């Protein structure tokens, strides 16, 4: 790769596209952004009260104790009580003193009463919170500590560790004074005691986002037992959202520029110029990667400098880079496969939805479950919250998407050539081309199986993330997903090799490449051991997916050795079965892969049932 | 300068080019003609390194075509003019000059010289707003921005109006006179006949005939001798007070001369008329067993 030429292409990519957007468009886009920010600011400043402002009309005398709660709630228009007004439908509620004098009949009257009760409760809570003597306001203080979800058996055991690690283990002060230690400062402690969460003891954010989250979700730092609600990870949601949104805009522009190289053969002349296709791809990708990272850096700095988050720095920015690469690589690969802008739209929507699900959804549960670590955004959220990030956590979150991105770029680069870029070949044929282009000898079977492991890893993690909440039924479902993913990954390139004529269709060749594919997969699979470092296998579903269970006590070393080598035999045998089918034709391949999946499932099920403790 | 041996290109089961062997000397203009789907464009793309040959060997300017250094010596003009339409001619040419490591001052001078020669104005107008002819001129200028030794021009006048077509052909002829090695593919055989030193005729992926125009005419064309006599001879027609007899060999000419002498007259004039390249091409294309009749060995 020639860095000088790569940068030239990158520079011209920026210049070229900058020339395609006129000043008027830029001005309109700028105005749209300003308008969006302004609307968001107004919405945040005004809270959620704007929509139902003055919705209900209530008749209350000023002397009534209910006057103040009603007057404080913008949902109510307070008027003099009038029987006639109620009869005409101009007042939903009419009070005399503390007595409701009309029976709610209509839906609106019933809704008004419900809202009124809530308003009175909120008013009372505010009054209590503003009391100087909190002991008098809340004679009994209960400290609530929300724990990360762990395996059922070790929840209690890990509670101490968890409490101390996040610093939220403060206890209610016996004298009722507000030392603030009962809260970690986030909305996680919605029902805990202590009137004013300091958030400083645990190092987590006490900034505007957590406060906003508490306000919107009904969480409060203190209140009556009826106010206690499970914490909603609002802060994680907002932070993850902020970092995922820019990616979706960047890939639209990137996918468009990559596809436009293919339409009308515009990229043909670059291919015939004295630069390699890798320079071209990298040169055209770098501006978009830098653009995405620039936006992410600005967001991180903005959050940090505005005090909305307690942390946020290089770790958060670096953690986003694999995600940006993953978005770009998936889009690039899709743009290489797409035959028109219509298909590209489908591709970008698919990329957006699937990668957003992969990155965004787990990150929402940053503080809830360790599975959240499968997303690099979890690292981002944790860093923004001021939590310490271990190197193993960082590696666990960022390595799979990085490797997957590299493989996707590699696959796409396989299609970045005259034969594939400018033809309207069917997608399956292009996929086979992308794979067969990497086949040079029988050893390519080993290499490709290993290279496809990041796909397998990410797909299996996503399966775990999607299925772990289903309880007992999740384990067989995960087993099925794993079997399907792994058998396809081990065999699809073998089929591509036979279909393209790169492998001879002999029995001997089929057995050889099948065995090599199984070996490659086995070796690469050992990298999955990294999951041990973050104890993801504490969760039964994770254990089912990655089969990391330890043998029971009393098992002989010979058996242990055999068990360690059994996966090698499994992968080799199943890959050979698929290979034998692939050497004949597509239908035989499909049948053989199904057979291989059956063998694999039987093996996994046996291992899980007998060994997983 | 160009050496191709037994070139072969397969797309799955389809063989686009098979067994193509030819060489092009420095400064030579080599034409490739043939019907649609004959394999002309595929051959040019293999020469440019765009397509990887399935079999055979090809080198350009001493480099293997997979070597990116080879592309430094090459100017390729594809049949269409795929340009970045949001760029101007100047920015577009500077971009490619940059890729070819042409110093900025040299690139600027070369760009203006070439565009002047091509009589292209509106150099700051976006390419997307230009006519097809203007775009073609920009594409030609791009193919010359690195001052290449070898030019591969695929249908350079395709789809252009007659005026622009003549301009492009004359410009290509001028490049040939400057000593560029050019491989030129065209449907218009008159253009090929005008500027090419040698020609390869392709059909169904194979070179079915190859040589200079004289050799091709000898092999596949017809040469007619129109013998004008002062007296009537057998099979002659009267024309403007003379008699004209058409024969296809010098022996025929001799026999007409003898006949005229016997009748007390003589030969007034002998004119030679040869088949055009188009007629040669049609003869080759209509041949029942194409593919093996080489005029010269590689």
Write a structural description.
The complex is a heterodimer of chains A (613) and B (298). Chain A is mainly alpha-helical. Chain A is built from 25 helices and 4 strands. Chain A folds into 4 domains: 229 residues; 75 residues, no CATH class; 68 residues, no CATH class; 173 residues, no CATH class. Chain A has a 4-stranded mixed beta sheet. In chain A, strand 1, helix 3 and strand 2 form a beta-alpha-beta unit. The radius of gyration of chain A is 30 Å and the shape is globular. About 11% of the residues of chain A have low confidence. Chain B is of the alpha/beta class and 298 residues long. Chain B folds into 2 domains: 216 residues, P-loop containing nucleotide triphosphate hydrolases (Rossmann fold, 3-Layer(aba) Sandwich); 52 residues, Dna Ligase, domain 1. Chain B has a 6-stranded mixed beta sheet, sandwiched between helices. Chain B has a 4-stranded antiparallel beta sheet with strand order 2-1-4-5, covered by helices on one side. In chain B, strands 12-13-11-14 form a 4-stranded antiparallel beta sheet, covered by helices on one side. Chain B starts with a strand and ends in a 12-residue tail after the last helix. The C terminus of chain B is likely disordered. At the A-B interface, helix 1 and helix 10 of A face helix 2 and helix 3 of B.
Compose a concise summary of this entry.
Chain A is an all-alpha fold and 613 residues long.
Write the layout of secondary structure elements.
The complex is a heterodimer of chains A (613) and B (298).
Chain A: H1 3-20, H2 23-46, E1 56-59, H3 67-72, E2 76-79, H4 83-87, E3 93-96, E4 99-100, H5 107-129, H6 134-137, H7 155-166, H8 208-217, H9 234-262, H10 268-271, H11 277-305, H12 314-337, H13 341-364, H14 376-384, H15 391-415, H16 418-421, H17 427-436, H18 443-451, H19 453-467, H20 474-499, H21 507-525, H22 530-533, H23 540-546, H24 557-582, H25 586-611
Parallel strand pairs in A: 1-2, 1-3
Antiparallel strand pairs in A: 3-4
Helix pairs in contact in A: 1-11, 9-11, 9-12, 9-13, 9-14, 11-12, 12-13, 12-14, 12-15, 13-14, 14-15, 15-17, 15-19, 17-20, 18-21, 19-20, 19-23, 20-23, 20-24, 20-25, 21-24, 24-25
Chain B: E1 2-11, E2 14-24, E3 29-33, H1 40-48, E4 55-60, E5 63-64, H2 68-72, E6 74-77, H3 89-99, H4 104-117, H5 132-144, E7 150-154, H6 162-177, E8 181-185, H7 189-195, E9 198-203, E10 206-212, H8 213-220, E11 223-229, E12 237-239, E13 242-247, H9 250-262, E14 267-274, H10 277-286
Parallel strand pairs in B: 3-8, 3-9, 6-7, 7-8
Antiparallel strand pairs in B: 1-2, 1-4, 4-5, 9-10, 11-13, 11-14, 12-13
Helix pairs in contact in B: 3-4, 8-10
